[in-house]
Amino acid sequence: MQQVGRQARAASQQASMAESGLRDQALEAAASALEDSAATLAEENNKDLEHGRESGLDAALLDRLELTSQRIAGMAEGLRQIVALPDPIGEITDLSYRPTGIQVGRMRVPLGVIGIIYESRPNVTADAAALCLKSGNATILRGGSEAIHSNLAIASCMAAGLSEAGLPEHLVQVVNTTDRAAVGALLGMNQYVDVIIPRGGKGLIERVMRDSTIPVIKHLHGVCHVYIDDQADRDKAIDVAFNSKTQRYGTCNTMETLLVAGSVAANILPDLASRYREEGVELRGCERSCALLGDIKPATEDDWGEEYLAPILAIRIVDSFEQAVAHIEKYGSHHTDAIITQDFDRARRFLRVVDSSSVMVNASTRFADGFEYGLGAEIGISTDKLHARGPVGLEGLTSQKFVVLGDGHTRT
Amino acid sequence: MQQVGRQARAASQQASMAESGLRDQALEAAASALEDSAATLAEENNKDLEHGRESGLDAALLDRLELTSQRIAGMAEGLRQIVALPDPIGEITDLSYRPTGIQVGRMRVPLGVIGIIYESRPNVTADAAALCLKSGNATILRGGSEAIHSNLAIASCMAAGLSEAGLPEHLVQVVNTTDRAAVGALLGMNQYVDVIIPRGGKGLIERVMRDSTIPVIKHLHGVCHVYIDDQADRDKAIDVAFNSKTQRYGTCNTMETLLVAGSVAANILPDLASRYREEGVELRGCERSCALLGDIKPATEDDWGEEYLAPILAIRIVDSFEQAVAHIEKYGSHHTDAIITQDFDRARRFLRVVDSSSVMVNASTRFADGFEYGLGAEIGISTDKLHARGPVGLEGLTSQKFVVLGDGHTRT
Fold first, then answer.
1. A389: which chain B residues are within 8 Å (Cβ-Cβ)?
2. Are A396 and A388 in contact (CB under 8 A)?
3. Cβ–Cβ of A355/B107 closer than 8 Å?
């Protein structure tokens, strides 16, 4: 692993000297390489699938592991979309003259070396490496051991692209071992790795948080809320609350708890509950919701903090705006929270006081996503406050340094 | 300590609901309280000074510890300067419509609770607390035990200001114990503290880095370079190199190593060396510098990585631009590095490839400072890449969350 780290650092330094266009050329060539190597990719993927079947992986995991020809085409397409994004690197902003006569501005630069630790989906290898490369970084990728053949085959395509563009192949390295100790080694390589981005379940993230001596950009969990205010428009409330839960169940920006102002609950909740029931969503309510809706399961204290990632919804009737905000603060995960209201002051206040990476008015929590926000692509959604918060696009993979231009200026 | 943490978190939440103007009122009132309490402050400070003398603190430390009436007035003035800065909190940028019809932007918000760990200078208590308060954060301050009476007295003035503005007093808390275990406890309070900012010597910073489970914004050390290129203007080169070393010795943005292109060394170095000698700067040179300058001390390998913070300068003659950049990469601390050149391409290239928090062309490294950069004030200079890099002003004490505005928009 030390050698992998050294190679990454060296490649990152070489890349910082390279023309911007070369990184796009490399990605374009890697996309073609993925398409041209579809047969090889499928073959290598088959080794992983067979091994997975033998070792008893469940159907959902096997599905995530599979590289169908459609998924391979999708990876290549993903790379070309990243090529089409503007290059963030080298951009100078806020360059202005100071009273002393020096010019001071900020230049956007790569972070350096990014370690990605992820689980079964092999397309992460191409996606993550491409975003890191576009933003001028070197990447060390450590995928799940069940996808090792697939990941190495994808890495070869990335290497072919880099080499065609004349860039160092070590800009993208997949750790070529299934040894679990490699993760620990990666998390300790401060001298070579600038940031770690784990992508996977809560267990993985918690392990990385515990063991990493390198700064981590992480997505821990999403316990997202929609609060239907007493000044909500009834139709918008029902549409947004329905969509926030049911548009997809397994995503981190899916609503897990619905809060409803007491004075409008009787008018809104029964119809909304019917729509959920039609869709097969299990409802778990506070005492008042249970009384209002009849045969729903009572929610326990644990339900309020639960990220179901499933067709289950907790419902709580609250007395006031303040109570809703306090609930979100106490039980939420600071990921994405929305208010449904027609009241201008409440909307402004919610935006200001709710301390989440995305706060919304009259919009579905499902919009919390790099593509929807116009970032072009995302490497993940950060629930941290430092550096990147919310959906992380290319900008989150960069930092800004100060540039100072003078004419022999000295300080007095 | 747990109680201190809980109080800070609660205060930070209350403050997030408060009007912006109240924070300025509190700072203004705290400034007046410092002036009105000058006698008490001097008295409390005397306890620390006496105790310091008894326990044998050296003269430099005792000087740093002393709160003269001028220094007290300076603290009050510092607070008023912070009042005069624009409020960063709540600022919404980049708000634009997406193809789906939602509006997406970013709002600047406080980080939450900031822990400051610092050494002897008591004015840090007022400065740091004021910057954190201006940016909407709660602060937990842990100063050196030798300054405990002074720090608590300053904290009372801050509390008086907060209380006058109707803000929670726990927004600014000085840890009221000299127990060393308190630092460890503070570094472990993830649930209450969002970021730790250590201010002090390398020993303190390294301890904080090792023990903190909370993200740290830190300034490790400054090994800054000036490179005199073969296309440098002779006069500018001499002025900037002289100023970068001698304007102040003990600061992190002081040049510690001078690099000179071989082809111009004979023309520039002897005169420059005379100026350094007149100023009493000890020179330590590479073999070629020694040959050129005569009786200077040979530099050892250790000198290239040394942060002298003293009238000592290492000098190395290099063969090329590339060699200068490689030296900076190998031995520098990525703090502040400058090139002196009249060549346009070299200047552009240096700005791009040198991976330091400040990169400069034809300007003294001593300019790397929050005031000089127009940040208004600084809480420190970060040598990290994530989040804040270089001088950290109010913006570095904030984060940005996404705001989404809709009209009942749902995702399809």
1. 399-402
2. yes
3. no
Of the candidates B90, B358, B405, which has its C-beta nearest A404's C-beta? B358
CB spacing of A372 vs B102 below 8 angstroms: yes
The tens digit of pLDDT for each residue in A59-95 reads 988 999 999 999 999 999 999 999 999 999 999 999 9
pTM for this predicted structure: 0.91
Report the alpha-carbon distance of residue A336 to residue A399 in Å, rounded: 25
Rg of chain A over Cα atoms, rounded to whole angstroms, equals 24
**In chain B, what residues touch A251 (CB-CB under 8 Å)?**
none
A66-85 residues touching B, CB cutoff 8 A = none
Q: What's the pLDDT score for residue B377?
A: 83
Q: In the numeric block, which tokens belong to residue B394? A: 């109010």
d(CA A303, CA A295): 17
- Inform me whether the pLDDT recorded for B212 exceeds 90: no
Distance, in Å, from the CA atom of A236 to the CA atom of A363, rounded to the nearest integer, reads: 9
Compute the average pLDDT of residues A290-319. Answer: 96
**Distance from C-alpha of B268 to C-alpha of A206, rounded to nearest angstrom:** 57
ipTM confidence: 0.93
Which pLDDT tens digit goes with each residue over A168-218?
A: 999 999 998 878 889 999 999 988 999 999 998 888 898 998 888 888 998
Cβ–Cβ gap B402/A408 under 8 Å: no
Q: Does B351 touch chain A (CB under 8 A)?
A: yes
Distance to chain B for A148, nearest Cα, Å: 30
Helix extents (H) in A2-122: 2-17, 20-36, 38-54, 59-65, 69-84
Taking the CA of residue A174 and the nearest CA in chain B, the distance in Å comes to 24
B interface test, pick of A367, A369, A398, A400 with most B CB neighbours within 10 Å: A367
CB A224 within 8 A of CB A254: yes
Please write the tens of the pLDDT for every residue from A175-187: 988 788 899 999 9
Mean model confidence pLDDT for chain B: 94
Cβ-defined contact of A401 to B391 (cutoff 8 Å)? no
In B, which residues are within 8 Å of A244 by CB distance? 410
Q: In what order do the strands lie in the sheet with A195-199?
A: A172-174, A138-142, A113-118, A195-199
Region of poorest pLDDT, from A50-54, B19-23, B187-191: B19-23
Tens digits of residue pLDDT in B82-132: 999 999 999 999 999 999 999 999 999 999 999 999 987 899 899 999 999
